[in-house]
């Protein structure tokens, strides 16, 4: 039975970052990685952005194999025995470990119809499938108006495809952006050729005469309509992959609960990335973050802690995106349901949005404003209450 000083479950960005962290401290210890995908770890953000704008696919690889790791790919860890410090995979192999990292990520939510005709866009394989279809087909349904929907619709339109984007909210990215920015984006996408259908529930998708028929229901009028497309891609959120941890008796609540050292209910078991639910002191709340920066920073911290460093993880969430020729960076808690203060120097084209909770700035959106992330972090870390009207011009 293979034994590793460090065993990593998951083959994504968090896993790779953790191995980098381990190797910064321990160059000798044995490291094993069990990953369900058949490829070694790669960067996910280019799949919905850079690769559609000419970035070379050769540049996505993280070269994990160069760090002295036993990669066990195309395998899923199916059982964790905490007392024996042993993991079994779906191909009948068992492994023992000294330290374990659960970096199992998430699985896309699926619609109850459409089957394999819908591409739930998350992996390199999904990218290849959509890319191949975009060479043959013309008209694409894009279901969901969040991160994947907004990026994939822009990628398809930029590549000369018809994208029909349907989602239940009032505007693109409505869970993140204040209402006027979200509505501005509806128009902005339309000007670039995307058919934007806000306020719509997708209630059916079926194949007929070689085409896909998508049925929508208008959220306010209840009226139904059917649109014919050649292919469908969806980003309707993910569910954290907690089954392995839950079956082993580890604490699970919207992800795997970790302490500030990133230990998951057992001193030798850590969790990180999309699957980990952690406490952030500046935000004074627990959260689970599904972005690249969190995978990198949390993975690195978990790896270093597994190798003996033992420091807390207090990093504020950060993410970014490009939407056609617009772009943004976001720090902290950027939920449009919070009180927001928008500071537009040129309405909707450039500006800063502050997100407040309990009289403190909890998040900052930098909309086509650059090099202010550190200042935003400092503002969020300030412990004293802030008057919303003093925020304009602050960054
Ligand atoms: N730039 C980035 O940081 C970036 C880019 C891509 C993906 N991601 C991550 O990937 C993950 C997946 O992204 P996502 O876009 O799937 O999730 P999301 O939560 O960002 O968006 C989900 C969207 O789907 C809509 N939706 C839900 N049910 C629906 C239904 N039945 N019919 C139509 N629409 C429906 C929601 O209302 C919302 O608009 C997220 O965790 C995200 O953070 C991040």
TrEMBL record:
What are the protein's GO molecular function terms?
FAD binding; NAD(P)H oxidase H2O2-forming activity; protein dimerization activity
Which SMART domains does its entry note? AIF_C
Catalysed reactions, semicolon-separated: A + NADH + H(+) = AH2 + NAD(+)
Query: Which Pfam families does the protein's record reference?
Result: AIF_C (PF14721), Pyr_redox_2 (PF07992)
Cofactors required: FAD
Keyword Transit peptide (UniProt): yes
Which InterPro entries is this protein grouped with?
AIF_C, FAD-oxidoreductase/Apoptosis, FAD/NAD-bd_sf, FAD/NAD-binding_dom, FAD/NAD-linked_Rdtase_dimer_sf
Q: Which GO terms of the cellular component aspect does the record hold?
A: cytoplasm
Question: Is NAD among this UniProt entry's keywords?
Answer: yes
Q: Where are the transmembrane segments?
A: none
Q: Where is the Mitochondrial apoptosis-inducing factor C-terminal domain?
A: 302-347, 349-381
Question: Could you tell me which residue ranges the FAD/NAD(P)-binding domain spans?
Answer: 4-291
What keywords would UniProt list here?
Apoptosis, FAD, Flavoprotein, NAD, Oxidoreductase, Transit peptide
Q: Name one GO biological process term.
A: programmed cell death
What PANTHER family does the record tag this protein with? Answer: APOPTOSIS-INDUCING FACTOR 1, APOPTOSIS-INDUCING FACTOR 1, MITOCHONDRIAL
Q: What is this protein called?
A: Pyridine nucleotide-disulfide oxidoreductase
Provenance organism: Methylocaldum marinum
Give the lineage: Bacteria, Pseudomonadati, Pseudomonadota, Gammaproteobacteria, Methylococcales
């Amino acid at each position: 039975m293979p034994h590793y000083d460090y065993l990593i479950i998951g083959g994504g960005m968090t896993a790779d970052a953790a191995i980098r962290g381990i190797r910064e401290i321990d160059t000798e210890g044995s490291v094993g990685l069990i990953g369900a995908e058949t490829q070694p770890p790669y960067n996910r953000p280019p799949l919905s952005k850079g690769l559609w704008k000419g970035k070379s696919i050769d540049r996505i690889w993280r070269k994990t194999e160069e760090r002295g790791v036993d990669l066990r790919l195309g395998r899923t860890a199916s059982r964790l025995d905490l007392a024996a410090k042993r993991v079994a995979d779906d191909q009948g192999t068992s492994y023992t470990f000294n330290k374990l990292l659960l970096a199992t990520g998430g699985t896309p939510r699926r619609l109850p119809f459409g089957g394999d005709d819908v591409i739930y866009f998350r992996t390199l394989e999904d990218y290849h499938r959509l890319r191949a279809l975009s060479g043959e087909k013309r008209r694409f349904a894009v279901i969901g108006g969040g991160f994947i929907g907004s990026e994939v619709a822009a990628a398809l339109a930029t590549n000369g495809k018809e994208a029909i984007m349907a989602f239940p909210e009032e505007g693109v990215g409505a869970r993140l952006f204040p209402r006027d920015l979200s509505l501005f984006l509806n128009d902005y996408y339309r000007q670039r050729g995307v058919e934007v259908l806000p306020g719509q529930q997708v209630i059916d998708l079926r194949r007929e005469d070689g085409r896909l028929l998508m049925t929508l229901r208008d959220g306010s009028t209840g009226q139904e309509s059917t649109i014919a497309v050649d292919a469908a891609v969806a980003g309707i959120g993910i569910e954290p992959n907690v089954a392995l941890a839950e079956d082993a008796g580890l604490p699970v609540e919207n992800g795997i609960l970790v302490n500030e050292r990133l230990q998951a209910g057992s001193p030798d078991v850590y969790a990180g990335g999309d699957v980990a639910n952690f406490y952030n002191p500046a935000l004074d709340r627990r959260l689970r973050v599904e972005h690249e920066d969190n995978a990198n920073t949390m993975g690195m911290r978990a790896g270093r802690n597994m190798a003996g460093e033992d420091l807390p993880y207090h990093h504020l969430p950060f993410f970014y995106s490009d939407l056609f020729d617009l772009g943004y960076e976001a720090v902290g808690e950027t939920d449009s349901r919070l009180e927001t203060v928008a500071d537009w120097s040129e309405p909707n084209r450039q500006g800063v949005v502050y997100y407040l909770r309990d009289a403190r700035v909890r998040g900052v959106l930098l909309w086509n404003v650059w090099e202010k992330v550190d200042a935003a972090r400092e503002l969020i870390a300030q412990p004293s209450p802030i008057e919303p009207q003093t925020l304009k011009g602050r960054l």
